[in-house]
Amino acid sequence: MNRKKISLTDIAAFLGGISGLAAKAPEILEEKGGAPHNDSSNPTPVEKWSLDYKLKTTNYLEDPTVIFKFGGSLWRQENWQPILVDRIRQLLELQKKYCIVLTTGGGRAQELSKEMYEALGLSGLSEETYRQSAGSALATQAKTLADLLGNKGIYVEPDALHYISRGMLRDRIPVVSMIGKDYIDFVEIAENGGAKRTVNSIPEDQSDAHTVVIAHYLGQKGAIFGKVTDGVWVVDPNVTPADGEIYNTLQAELKRLNYDGNAQLPQIKATDILEGKISRKGKDRRDQHLAETLGLRLYLNPASTDQWLQVMDITNPEHVQKAFEGYAKGKHNVGSYILKG
User: Fold this and answer.
1) Is 57 among the domain residues?
2) pLDDT digits over 64-91, tens only?
3) What is the enclosing helix (H) or strand (E) of 298?
C-alpha cells in the first residue's frame, strides 16, 4: 500500500494546531465470556472491579507479537516531534526482528471538541458527539503513524483486524486505532454512579480499553504502554511546582497515602490502582492518569488472554529497546507492570 508522504511540518500543523505473544492460547477461553459473579456481600477485588465482555471471533497470531501503544501523553508533550521521529526510526529497526502491532492514544486531539465547546460558551457537548470526535482523532493519529512508517506502515481499519496475519507482520507494521464492533458480542461499561450496562462496542474515547481488547483478540499475553513516565508512580512525576494547584494536590495525596516522597512501583495490581492506592490525578484536569478505568476493568476479566500491562518511558530509546527484548523473553525489565489481580 502506497501512501502520500507526510512531512513533519504537516504533522505539526495538525497536532501542533490542536495542542496551541505470545504463545497461542490452548483453548478459546474468551468465547465463554463471563467474569465470575459472586453473590456474597464481600466480593474479592477482582470480582468487584472486573467488567465482562465477549468477542464474536478472534485472530490468534502464530508468532509472538509486541502490542505497543503510543500513549496519549506523548502527543501532549511540547517536544513531541523529535521524540516521535526517533521512535519511528527505532521501530523500523525493531521490525526487522520483532512482529509489531501499534495502537495510539488520543492525547490533546481527543479533547479538542470538548474544549472548543467550553471556550465558545456553548451549552455542552453530547456524549455521542464527543466519542465520535475522539474516534476520529484516534484514527487520524493512527494513520499519521502509519504514514510516518513509510512503506513499512499500514493503517488497519477497526473492522479489518482479521486481515492482520503472519505474512503482514513479516513485512509491515500494522497500526490500529480501535477494535470494531463487528468483533464484539457485548461489553459491560459502568456509569458514573457505578451501575453497569451492556453495549455492543467499546466507547471510541477509551483507547486503553481498545488496546487491551486488541491484544486479547490477537491472542497476546500483554501490551506495552509507552508513556512519558518511567513506569507507575504513587503520583504523576511530571507534575512540578510550576504546575500550580495540581502540584499541591498531589503532595497532599502523597501524605494521604502515607508516602514521604514520590516513588516508582515496579509492579502493582490493577485492583490497587482502581481502589486508590496510587493517585490518578494529572494535568489538564485528568482523573484517570496512567490508565483509563475501563481499560483496567476489562483487563481484569478472567476470560482475557492479557496477563500483564507494561508501562514504560517512550521518550527513552534504551528503555524501548529493553521493553521489546523483555516482551519476547517474557521478562519485564524496565518501567513497571500492572498485574492481573
Assistant:
1) yes
2) 999 999 987 776 667 778 888 899 999 9
3) helix 293-299
